[in-house]
Amino acid sequence: MTRKLVAGVDTSTQSCKVRVTDAETGELVRFGQAKHPNGTSIDPSYWWDAFLQAAEQAGGLDDVEALAVGGQQHGMVILDRQGNVIRDAMLWNDVSSAPQAAALIEKMGAAPAVDGEPEDPIARGKQRWVKAVGSSPVASYTLTKVAWVAENEPENAKKIAAICLPHDWLSWRIAGYGPVAEGEDAHLDALFTDRSDASGTIYYDAASGEYRRDLIAMVLEPAEGDQSAKAHADAIVLPTVLGPRDAAAVKASPAIAGGNVDGGCLIAPGGGDNAMASLGLGMAVGDVSVSLGTSGVAAAISENPAYDLTGAVSGFADCTGHYLPLACTINGSRILDAGRAALGVDYDELAKLAFASEPGAGGITLVPYFDGERTPNRPDATATLSGLTLTNTTKENMARAFVEGLLCSQRDCLELIRSLGAEIKRILLIGGGAKSEAIRTLAPSIFGMDVTRPATDEYVAIGAARQAAWVLSGETEPPAWKLTIDGVETGEPTPAVYEAYAKARG
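Given the sequence above, the corresponding structure tokens read:
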């Protein structure tokens, strides 16, 4: 019997990965990868080129019966009526729109308090945003980036015919669509997405399943005025939001995928990278993943929407019909890179130095907000080292402080999720940063509980492949693929380290 093949695509900040997978077992069959350019504002054509290179490296997709795309969240891709990208995509880690995020909170909170709302207009604004769309504005979210364009590039704002996200745009291109000549139909209405990625725009309410075009109109006002902005917002094409196991109305272009498959290659809804990773890990209620990549992300599975009225925890949807309360730091594994560079050592040497120090790094605390920060929301912050003396300023203590600083920043995220009533039964440690021996060893002590370490793998791509297999199967539940666990890390809790960190960050 010929096995059925599916493909999972991970279009991330740094690269595109294509995983061709056995649909029934989840077994890896072929793999390809290609780099994306660095930066916080990127021409999406680079994503397309990288996808084609990765697909070719993976042996092509002619025999693939279904595929799905997992993508970096929040990135703003704006298209004109001909399907041209109007300007470079502003990515999740572009903090240019921090002033717009703050202004949106102020605007939402301007009306007087009602029904016990806070008297402080900022707190009131955050609460109203959370109640409206699950999250309060920060610079990462798509809507704040549209607001930035409206204020700084009004002519570009007026050209917007469609707004989509990286995974939406790439799925659309895989279906064979793209820029067309003046007067031709670009088929913008073929754009589609899923609940997880749509919920990260803050103009989609995952609880009601509705786009909030009134919020888009609000941010377009500086470019067009009140009435024109409302008409424009109503006319903008927003991707159709598919259910977790719905196939898109369009199939992959045979020139891209499924050329040798009868009936062509189905395209699954896709999703945001964090939701896709949770699907790849087979996470259930009570599980929390801590992913240490470019960013640091703590995400839990919840049966019900999570509303953090302070706005610190994002109330996203997952890829199965549940919810994904998530706290994210801009600074992730690159904190270790900064430590290595400062000390002139490699990862192994950094770990050895850290192990030679004691918990608390001799009194040195790193607050690692190198590129600003999202959790807590401090876009203009920089990193600080405190507690330095002539006695404790050693390579060993410095190395330990960098490792502890990264882990304490993730503990912040875990505590925020826990504060919403989420029971954390199991922590899954994943991402490139999880390869660090120092991180693996010290994580249980900082987090205060055992840490499960799945085998190092491409869980976003696995999740995308699993979703593709789910859609292909037509079953009510995703296929049960085995998760390989490399080990469970244990350690004596060191609460004083986190207490010192909390005091230092304020």
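The chain has two domains: 5-97+139-267, 282-506. Try to locate this feature in the token string yourself.
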